[in-house]
Amino acid sequence: MNSSVKRIASLLFVLPLFVLSFCSSNQESENVRVDSAIQEKSIVDSVKAKKEFSIDSLDYLLGKFNPGKNQVFTEVSLIHGSRKGMYLRKDVYEAFKKMFNAAKIDRIDLKIISATRTFRQQKAIWEAKWEGKKLVGGKDLSKIQDETERAEIILKYSSMPGTSRHHWGTDMDLNDLTNDYFEYGTGAKIYQWLQQNAGTYGFCQPYTSKDSLRPNGYEEEKWHWSYFPVSSKLLTTYLQNITVDQISGFQGSEKAEEIGIIEKYVAGVNQECK
């Protein structure tokens, strides 16, 4: 075989190896680019989540977000909740599970019946009462012409959208939504246990009976408990950053300033929750 033929044969042998090596190198580069893109997206999503749910995010404070689509929140298990589709902040839920387990040892059954509520959900609750679609104390409030009076009746137990602590994922309603339930039998045992032990796990009752220290705001809610290591910071930030003109977008919102919705209701909580 002459030298020219040998060179051609050698090239024919080496060329496939070169092509294979080149393709492999390209594939590795492409994989690196894909991995980098995935990592970059993960970092962006993480930063976005932290920003959206940081204590200085106004949308978060006002409940204008979807807890089901953010890693800061998690769904409440049916072991701990009365239904699917309820969410809490992960740190709050972990604290609740510790309290739940401790209560179990003492033969106390805690059950979350309401957790995070968004602005939209709170608006639906508020406007159903405002329009008379849901009776309040057996009354159709739409028949009350004085809108300030109508709002104040709703505000005995329901928040205006944008002012509810349930927006934050730190607060929950337990077992029942009537004070009477917690005054007798099983309910009384549950409430007594919570009074004696909830603080150990970081929980407080925001709406206690009114007195000189809490003269304003909602009526007593023995079912409503808040994780104060987080909610106290959110309350402070809310009071420093939210103004009454931001409480809007629902029927009756124009009465917010006259009623003193922020200073009397948002700030009107038990001193242990501040």
Task: Please write out the topology.
Elements: H1 3-52, H2 58-61, E1 73-75, E2 87-89, H3 90-105, E3 112-114, H4 119-130, H5 147-154, E4 171-174, H6 185-197, E5 203-204, E6 224-227, H7 228-241, H8 256-259, H9 261-266
Antiparallel strand pairs: 1-2, 3-4, 4-6, 5-6
How would you describe what is shown here?
The protein is of the alpha+beta class and 274 residues long. It folds into 2 domains: 52 residues; 216 residues, Muramoyl-pentapeptide Carboxypeptidase, domain 2. The chain is built from 9 helices and 6 strands. The chain has a 4-stranded antiparallel β-sheet. The radius of gyration is 28 Å and the shape is globular.
In short:
With 274 residues, the chain is of the alpha+beta class. Helices cover 46% and strands 7% of the residues. It folds into two domains: 1-52; 58-273, Muramoyl-pentapeptide Carboxypeptidase, domain 2 (2-Layer Sandwich).
Which properties best describe this structure?
single chain; 274 residues; alpha+beta; Muramoyl-pentapeptide Carboxypeptidase, domain 2; 2 domains; four-stranded antiparallel beta sheet; two-stranded antiparallel sheet; 9 helices; globular
Count the beta strands. 6
Structural class, from secondary structure content?
alpha+beta
Radius of gyration: 28 Å
H and E string = HHEEHEHHEHEEHHH
CATH class of the largest domain: Alpha Beta
Number of helices: 9
Report how far apart the termini are.
Answer: 95 Å
CATH topology name of the largest domain: Muramoyl-pentapeptide Carboxypeptidase, domain 2
Q: In CATH terms, what is the architecture of the largest domain?
A: 2-Layer Sandwich
- The geometry reads as globular
Tell me roughly what share of residues is in helical segments: 40-55%
Average pLDDT taken over every residue: 86
Sheet with the most strands, sense and barrel status: 4 strands, antiparallel
Q: What proportion of the residues form beta strands (DSSP E)? A: 5-15%
Strand order of the largest sheet: 3-4-6-5
Unreliable stretches covering 5 or more consecutive residues: 11-25, 32-50
Structural domain tally:
2
